[in-house]
Specification:
186 residues; alpha/beta; Rossmann fold; seven-stranded mixed sheet; 36% strand; globular; binds glutamine; Pyridoxal phosphate synthase yaaE subunit; pyridoxal phosphate; hydrolase; glutaminase activity; PdxT/SNO_CS
Length: 186
């Protein structure tokens, strides 16, 4: 099994460290020719979705990756990665891959609560650590999308077929629950 990690910007190194811990092979996607390699799953890290979206377009990788996601490539999108996958925003008009039927609020916790840590349930696992950094959350999920985590009445993790997203950063804690859930899709 080989995972491709989008490494244009943001917290990709931390995802790679998690994959190393789990003894899973990976490589980085930085330019179009990296997409020639075959992979079994894709990680879209946290960071700045606007910057990542712009680079994906400029480097001409958007269409190719979108097609692979639509053809059921398992993908894990964390924070900005979730924004890249969302089909709809409640406070923005731009979309990126737009493959996941969710409505996302960007920077949803505002300035004061911009970053915080808590614990919550993810799928069948209870009490996992969650770190939120200027995070988005989902205001609605559509068409067969399943909420995997709800914190303070907000949906902060969800799954639609092969696509798993989290508002929080599972790569910044020592907890492997979310990565394991993603790898189990492969
Ligand atoms: N930690 C993060 O990934 C923050 C996401 C950021 N608010 C964005 O819009 O991309």
């Amino acid at each position: 099994m080989t995972i491709a990690v989008l490494a244009l910007q943001g917290a990709f190194l931390e995802h790679e460290q998690m994959l190393e811990r789990l003894e899973v092979d990976y490589f980085e996607i930085r330019k179009k020719s990296d997409l020639k390699r075959s992979f079994d799953g894709l990680i879209l890290p946290g960071g700045e979705s606007t910057a990542m979206g712009k680079l994906l377009q400029e480097l001409k990788m958007m269409d190719d990756l979108k097609e692979q996601i639509e053809q059921d490539m398992p993908v894990l999108g964390t924070c900005a990665g979730m924004i890249l996958l969302a089909k709809e925003f409640s406070n923005d008009a731009n979309t990126y891959f737009a493959t996941m039927p969710i409505c996302v609020r960007r920077n949803a916790y505002g300035r004061q609560l911009g970053s915080f840590e808590t614990r919550g349930t993810f799928a069948d696992s209870t009490d996992i650590p969650m770190i939120f950094i200027r995070a988005p959350y989902m205001e609605a999920v559509y068409e067969g999308t399943r909420a995997l985590s709800v914190v303070n009445e907000k949906i902060v993790a969800a799954q639609y077929k092969n696509q798993v997203v989290t508002s929080f950063h599972p790569e910044l804690t020592g907890d492997i629950t979310v990565h394991q859930h993603f790898l189990n899709l492969i």
